[in-house]
Amino acid sequence: MTFPKTMRAMVTMGHGDLDQMVFHEDWPCPTPAPDEILIRVGACGLNNTDVNTRSGWYSKTVTDATTGGAFEDVGQDDPTWGGAPITFPRIQGADVCGEIVAVGENVDPARIGERVITDGWLRDADDPDDMNKTGYFGSERNGGFAEYTTTPSRNALAVQSDLSDAELATFSCSYSTAEGMLTRAGVGASDSVLVPGASGGVGGALVQLAKRRGARVIAMASEAKHKDVAALGADMILPRAPDALRTALGDEKITVVADVVGGPYWPALIDVLERGGRYTCSGAIAGPMVALDLRTFYLRDLTFTGSTVITPEVMPNLIRYIENGEIKPALAATYHLDQLREAQTAFIAKEHTGNIVVIP
């Protein structure tokens, strides 16, 4: 089978505003190296990491909330999720659903034709549990905002599902992030989990996956999105930032806060945790700089866990949940590849409930 030498791709040329994303009609089409596969992209999800990496928000020189725009000072040594430089130009996009159309050396040709979704975590094949040896698809190597992409064969997971490519492209980043957070916090059926930002991609995944574990879920979201959040299974839904959170919760006893929001409201979240409660975090879209009273932390016997690099079994588990119908996609909107800037604008403005997906 022959493939085109060039393809359509949205290419990020450097850190900065939306104009750093440039659409190309004739970008070189990749070919799979040994142990890699070539995917014809059916759809690719859009996530906070795409916005934050492009803008340079991960750098410690940036202390503002995620805005999606350019920052005045972006450190060049730590502007990515891993605290390291990034090489431009770069095709971003971690959440690919598509079809394997070619394989490199050492890969079974029988994989051609498989429908797959991507595991974004690029691990050392000889030491997959070492978090210091990980990269991320669409950051440390080109991703899926293009017609074709390559990835290591082990990072392309076969999936059997009646869901559309766009629906399947909602799962990889958002749901693996959420499952990683809940795993780190040890969430189980005896827990009551508070989820700020429950209308977002990760927030909605947290609601579903915590419910799957048998936990009680209290979601927080803007009132216009309460109906959509309720459809995900939340037991109780509160406004995005109640003036008196403890009062709003009534008799609810919060044992876990699963947070990707941070920002000025953060101390209120910590104050409602029960003694021995757990706080787990994988984002700070409302701002990374927060005020912590250490007395609350130690006198209440709280446990804080950061969660970024997931364990290798998370993605195979998600595939099983998808195939068994235990979780459902929260697809908010689709945009064409050449509309990626518009898609990011809508994503940043939180115009939608759930995930935004780009179609080549």
Automatic annotation (TrEMBL):
Name the SUPFAM superfamilies for this protein.
Answer: GroES-like, NAD(P)-binding Rossmann-fold domains
Q: Name one GO molecular function term.
A: RNA binding
Domain Enoyl reductase (ER): start-end pairs:
16-358
* Entry-linked CDD domains: MDR9
Enumerate the UniProt keywords alphabetically.
Answer: Acetylation, Cytoplasm, NADP, RNA-binding
Task: Give compartment(s).
Answer: Cytoplasm
> Whom does it interact with, and what assembly results?
Homotetramer.
Q: What is this protein called?
A: Alcohol dehydrogenase family protein
Its taxonomic path starts at: Bacteria, Pseudomonadati, Pseudomonadota, Alphaproteobacteria, Rhodobacterales
